[in-house]
Amino acid sequence: MFTMNKDMATAYSHLELNGRVLDRELLKIGESGFSEKYGCVFIKACINIETNASVDDFPDKTGFECFINSINIDDYVEADYLIQGVLLTRKIFSHWNKEKRDQNLLAVLSLDELGLKLKFHLQRTGEQLLSDELNDYEESIMVVDSSDSEFNEGVQNSVSA
Fold first, then answer.
1. Is 158 part of a structural domain of the chain?
2. What spatial distance separates the first Cα and last Cα of the chain, rounded to whole Å?
3. For residue 137, what are the contacts with CB-CB under 8 A and spacing of at least 6?
4. What is the pLDDT of residue 115?
């Protein structure tokens, strides 16, 4: 699955990823690996963030995973939010796919005038973070899963200076 609303389709169509590299701090997140707890999968770099929230505070595991696996790209870089978000998503998917997991990992990229938020969760039957009608959202939205080979082409391994 690789779907987006009209606003994201416009932004994504103008991306030039060739020669672009993932920010050093974002690369650390992307290479941190995964941890499992409560039937959920977490990006290790995200699970270390302190919070009082628990899986019981959410209607489902997807909501909890997205709460924990939430990365504000604009906290790490000052520009090229979508480029960095796509590169980080590819990096995380690359590690996920190397582990040959049974389930797909989904990424939700949400871009607005302030920056880009990236969330990850397992694909589960009967659970989803967003409505099926992505064009109803004000921000630019993309949803992609770890098995989408078109999206995952060109995984970057280098970092910026």
1. no
2. 33
3. 5, 110, 130, 131
4. 95
R_g (Cα) of the chain, nearest Å: 15
> In Å, how far are 10, 13, 85 from 17, measured between CA atoms?
15, 11, 11
Q: Name 22's bridge partners.
A: 159
Place of tokens 């650390």: 28
For the chain, the average pLDDT equals 88
Is 160 part of a structural domain of the chain?
Answer: no
d(CA 42, CA 10): 30
- What is d(CA 39, CA 62) in angstroms, rounded to the nearest whole number? 10
Residue 39: burial class (beta carbons within 10 Å; 0-12, 13-18, 19+): exposed
Number of domains forming the structure of the chain? 1
Q: Which domain holds residue 42?
A: 2-152
Range 149-153, long-range pairs (CB < 8 A, 24+ positions): 150/2, 151/2, 151/89, 151/90, 151/93, 152/90, 152/93, 152/94, 152/97
Q: Which one is predicted more confidently, 149 or 29? A: 29
Establish if 147 belongs to a structural domain. Answer: yes
- The answer to whether residue 77 sits within a structural domain is yes
CA distance 38 to 11: 36
